[in-house]
């Protein structure tokens, strides 16, 4: 009975003693947990045109509008996954959006996609990707006359008008785009300013080119600026109309953004772990544990720190040192000389037993007699008033010599 | 709780299995092994709570002398106590071996001895003792800090004790001298002795000579039962450090030598330590050994960071001695402080008493004054000269008021003060 209460008492004492640190520890743990939870709650992607990215460059808006209208939107990040999805939804021929700014997809992969019967929407495809689409090495001439890239173009007015017969483009009317890649193909819409005005841009050819291009059968569509789909610009001009019509044709939409998983295995840099022995990581972890134990061993104090009640002491010559610095800073060589002279006179008169009240003239005469120097010489030395530091130094040395002469005899 | 180096070595040994079988399981297994070893060792360690401590300290010790503090540990548990005991002495106690290993079988007692070499005068304290009780494997220990307060009084060193025999001899030489050498107002009759050549004929006691066949002279001895009041200034000026010693400690040395000398010389000694209130008071009239009482009273003195209250001094002196006394003021003559308090008060004191002002002079000032190699040196020399001149002026002012001044460097102050006392006594001015 008393034992348990004693233990409880001890625990309470210890809690009381370490209350501050307990509170600090608890608060910091709580803050950490809260921040971690907040950071992970409703976690968002941060890729450009990612369907779960609500930032201006994301595409969450477009994806969620499509989803509200019954389109099943699914994001994939590898070719294998995309193809697997395509096989699953084979019955209803889905739309595949391909956004590959890093140029990960090579010829073979694009061909693989082109061979399916899915509708392909390519966002800002490079010339090579387009070439592999339009001139497939295998069977299909399914894409018909090819779409080719026609370089980049600027839209000073920030808008591009449809200027074509395509229903999607006509529905959109005009789209907002500051710049982008323009393409040539069977269907071309939203030409850039120079083309619409019949200028001779793009390598001297007069063939028009537009931000939007499609194959004749409409199964391959190309859009030259990813910003049209982004959250930021979706609501401006006819961007939304074009986007939603392009992507909402089929009940299924695969949002494919190629990632590192699409790179061939041997292309990836070799992992460091493959080059080092297998015990490296466990041994490192173990050494870390040993290091922590070592810290606990050495860091454990045996008892509280003992304080020493130190008495106050002041260096006695401190005031003299301070006064010396004042003299020096002020360049008070005359004052310093006067003090030195007074001290020397006092000591010399004491040594010559002239008494405290002896006048300067008496002392001077006695010193001259005592040292054998001429009266004028001594008087000159004692009456000099040095005004500069070097003069003071010289004078003080001479005065010291005189004083020694007097007191040593 | 605490772990030992052995435990860390055991953990380090785990590197071999981890490297041989590099999996997470090996790490977990070895961790489990460590935990088991830790728990077993802790469980088998004797509880430090059952240990009863008893400390025996010497009553006091002179500064710079070695002493020993004993601590007895009674093991009340049923297990062997393998402990490291740490005595938490404050650093200036100079504990040589504050951490010690000890083995105490169950139910028995053990004793540790800590050698102390104090480096500071005053009361030294020990607050706690920490017992670290190891298990039989010496892998881990249970640690407990127990409050076990203790105090050791460190008495002033009394270095000037070495000069005491010489000064006493000088004092004794005053006894029995022929009157001619020391004749003065304050001498009293001591004894008669045979005339030897050289004695002053004026000191021949004709009446005694008539009774005997030889010529007899009177001899004199210095007066006894005079009063000596030593007043030690413990105000802020006593905190000035000269070399490695505060001027307070130099004052203590001087006061001790003078007090012991005066007591042997047959005078009554009163000691006062004062700043704004009395810090210590000792009288030779009270019972017991004067030196012992003095060092005990002086041990805890320290410089107080307040201004001396000179107004109270006459009253304080009157309270210890109603008669004319030799009043020795151990204070500072650095310019600034004395002009305001000391000098106005001394005129009043000098009327009633014979006043001696003893002060420590910093030898550094003398060295600074002589060194004249660079321009900075000259300025420093001038500042030192200024300080010394100020002291000189002040001393001259005091001497004109009939006050004796002893202005000496720390190592000669006690001796010079003692010499002055002997001189005053010889001249019968007490």
Note down, in words, how this protein is organized.
- The complex is a heterodimer of chains A (409) and B (430).
- Chain A is of the alpha/beta class and 409 residues long.
- Chain A is 46% helix and 13% strand.
- Chain A has 16 helices and 12 strands.
- Chain A has helices at 2-17, 19-40, 60-68, 79-88, 107-115, 127-134, 167-172, 193-196, 239-247, 272-275, 280-299, 318-330, 333-351, 360-371, 375-383, 389-408, and strands at 72-76, 95-99, 119-123, 148-154, 159-161, 174-176, 179-184, 187-191, 210-214, 220-223, 252-256, 314-315.
- In chain A, helix 13 runs parallel beside helix 16 (389-408) and helix 14 crosses helix 15 (375-383).
- Chain A is elongated, with a radius of gyration of 47 Å.
- Chain B is an alpha/beta fold and 430 residues long.
- Chain B has helices at residues 5-13, 15-20, 24-44, 164-174, 179-182, 206-211, 247-264, 290-298, 313-320, 337-340, 342-352, 363-370, 375-400, 413-426; strands at residues 2-3, 51-56, 60-62, 67-75, 81-89, 99-104, 109-116, 122-134, 140-155, 177-178, 187-194, 216-222, 227-233, 240-242, 245-246, 268-274, 278-283, 326-330, 354-360, 404-408.
- Chain B is elongated.
- Chains A and B meet through helix 11, strand 12, helix 12, helix 13 and helix 16 of A and strand 1, helix 1, helix 2, helix 3 and strand 5 of B.
Topology at a glance:
The complex is a heterodimer of chains A (409) and B (430).
Chain A: H1 2-17, H2 19-40, H3 60-68, E1 72-76, H4 79-88, E2 95-99, H5 107-115, E3 119-123, H6 127-134, E4 148-154, E5 159-161, H7 167-172, E6 174-176, E7 179-184, E8 187-191, H8 193-196, E9 210-214, E10 220-223, H9 239-247, E11 252-256, H10 272-275, H11 280-299, E12 314-315, H12 318-330, H13 333-351, H14 360-371, H15 375-383, H16 389-408
Parallel strand pairs in A: 1-11, 2-3, 2-11, 3-10
Antiparallel strand pairs in A: 4-7, 5-6, 8-9, 9-10
Chain B: E1 2-3, H1 5-13, H2 15-20, H3 24-44, E2 51-56, E3 60-62, E4 67-75, E5 81-89, E6 99-104, E7 109-116, E8 122-134, E9 140-155, H4 164-174, E10 177-178, H5 179-182, E11 187-194, H6 206-211, E12 216-222, E13 227-233, E14 240-242, E15 245-246, H7 247-264, E16 268-274, E17 278-283, H8 290-298, H9 313-320, E18 326-330, H10 337-340, H11 342-352, E19 354-360, H12 363-370, H13 375-400, E20 404-408, H14 413-426
Parallel strand pairs in B: 3-9, 13-16, 13-18, 18-19, 19-20
Antiparallel strand pairs in B: 1-9, 2-4, 4-7, 5-6, 5-8, 8-9, 10-12, 11-12, 14-15, 16-17
């Amino acid at each position: 009975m008393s034992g348990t209460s004693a233990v409880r008492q001890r625990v309470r004492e210890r809690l009381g003693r370490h209350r501050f640190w307990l509170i600090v520890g608890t608060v910091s743990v709580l803050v950490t947990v809260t921040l971690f939870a907040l950071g992970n709650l409703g976690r968002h992607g941060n890729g450009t045109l990612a369907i779960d990215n609500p930032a201006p460059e994301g595409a969450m808006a477009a994806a969620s509008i499509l989803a509200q209208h019954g389109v099943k939107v699914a994001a994939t990040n590898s070719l294998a996954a995309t193809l697997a999805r395509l096989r699953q939804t084979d019955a209803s021929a889905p739309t595949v959006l391909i956004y590959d700014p890093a140029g990960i997809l090579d010829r073979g992969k694009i061909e693989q996609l082109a061979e399916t019967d899915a509708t392909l929407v390519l966002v800002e495809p490079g010339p090579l990707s387009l070439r592999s689409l339009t001139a497939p090495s295998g069977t299909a001439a399914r894409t018909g006359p090819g779409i080719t890239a026609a370089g980049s173009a600027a839209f000073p007015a920030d808008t591009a008008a449809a200027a074509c017969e395509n229903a999607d483009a006509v529905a959109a009317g005009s789209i907002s785009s500051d710049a982008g890649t323009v393409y040539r193909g069977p269907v071309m819409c939203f030409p850039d300013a120079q083309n619409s005005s019949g200028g001779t841009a793009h390598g001297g050819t007069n063939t028009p080119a537009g931000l939007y291009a499609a194959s004749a059968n409409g199964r391959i569509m190309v859009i030259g600026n990813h910003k049209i789909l982004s959250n930021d610009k979706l609501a401006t001009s006819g961007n939304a109309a074009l986007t939603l019509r392009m992507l909402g044709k089929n009940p299924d939409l695969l949002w494919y953004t190629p990632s590192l998983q699409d790179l061939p295995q041997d292309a990836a840099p070799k992992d460091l772990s493959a080059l080092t022995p297998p015990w490296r990581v466990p041994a490192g972890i173990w050494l870390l544990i040993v290091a922590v134990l070592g810290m606990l061993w050495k860091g454990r104090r045996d008892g509280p720190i003992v304080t020493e009640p130190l008495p106050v002491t002041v260096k006695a010559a401190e005031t003299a040192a301070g006064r010396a610095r004042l003299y020096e800073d002020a360049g008070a060589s005359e004052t310093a000389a006067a003090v030195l002279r007074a001290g020397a006179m006092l000591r010399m008169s004491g040594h010559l037993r002239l008494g405290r009240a002896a006048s300067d003239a008496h002392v001077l005469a006695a010193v001259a007699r005592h040292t054998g120097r001429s009266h004028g010489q001594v008087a000159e030395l004692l009456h000099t008033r040095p005004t500069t530091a070097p003069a003071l130094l010289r004078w003080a040395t001479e005065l010291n010599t005189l004083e020694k002469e007097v007191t040593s005899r | 709780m605490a772990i030992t180096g052995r435990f860390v070595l055991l953990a380090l040994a785990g590197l071999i299995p981890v490297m041989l079988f590099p999996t997470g399981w090996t790490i977990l297994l070895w961790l489990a092994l460590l935990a088991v070893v830790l728990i077993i060792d802790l469980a088998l360690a004797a509880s430090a709570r059952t240990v009863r401590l008893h400390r025996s300290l010497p009553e006091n010790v002179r500064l710079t002398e070695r002493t020993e503090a004993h601590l007895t540990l009674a093991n009340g548990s049923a297990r062997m106590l393998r402990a490291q005991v740490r005595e938490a002495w404050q650093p200036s106690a100079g504990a040589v071996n504050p951490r010690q290993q000890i083995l105490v079988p169950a139910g028995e007692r053990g004793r540790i001895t800590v050698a102390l070499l104090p480096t500071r005068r005053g009361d030294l304290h020990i607050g706690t003792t920490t017992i670290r009780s190891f298990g039989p494997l010496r892998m881990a220990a249970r640690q407990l800090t127990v409050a076990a307060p203790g105090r050791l009084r460190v008495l002033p060193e009394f270095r000037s004790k070495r000069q005491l025999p010489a000064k006493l001899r000088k004092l004794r030489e005053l006894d029995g001298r022929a009157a001619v050498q020391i004749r003065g107002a304050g001498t009293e009759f001591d004894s008669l002795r045979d005339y030897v050549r050289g004695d002053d004929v004026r000191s021949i006691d004709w009446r005694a000579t008539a009774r005997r066949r030889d010529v007899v002279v009177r001899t004199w001895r210095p007066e006894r039962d005079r009063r000596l009041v030593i007043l030690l200034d413990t105000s802020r000026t006593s905190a000035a450090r000269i070399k490695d010693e505060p001027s307070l400690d130099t004052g203590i040395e001087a006061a001790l030598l003078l007090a012991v000398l005066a007591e042997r010389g047959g005078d009554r000694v009163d000691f006062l330590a004062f700043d704004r209130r009395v810090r210590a008071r000792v009288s030779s009239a009270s019972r017991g050994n004067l030196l012992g009482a003095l060092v005990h009273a002086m041990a805890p003195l320290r410089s107080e960071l307040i201004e001396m209250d000179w107004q109270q001094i006459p009253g304080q002196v009157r309270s210890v001695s109603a008669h004319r006394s030799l009043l020795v003021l151990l204070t500072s003559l650095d310019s600034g402080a004395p002009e305001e308090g000391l000098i106005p008060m001394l005129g009043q004191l000098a009327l009633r008493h014979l006043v001696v002002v003893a002060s420590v002079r910093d030898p550094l000032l003398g060295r600074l004054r002589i060194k004249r190699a660079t321009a900075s040196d000259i300025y420093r020399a001038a500042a030192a000269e200024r300080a010394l001149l100020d002291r000189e002026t002040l001393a001259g002012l005091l001497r004109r008021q009939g006050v004796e001044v002893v202005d000496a460097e720390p190592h000669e102050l006690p001796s010079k003060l003692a010499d002055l006392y002997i001189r005053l006594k010889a001249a019968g001015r007490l």
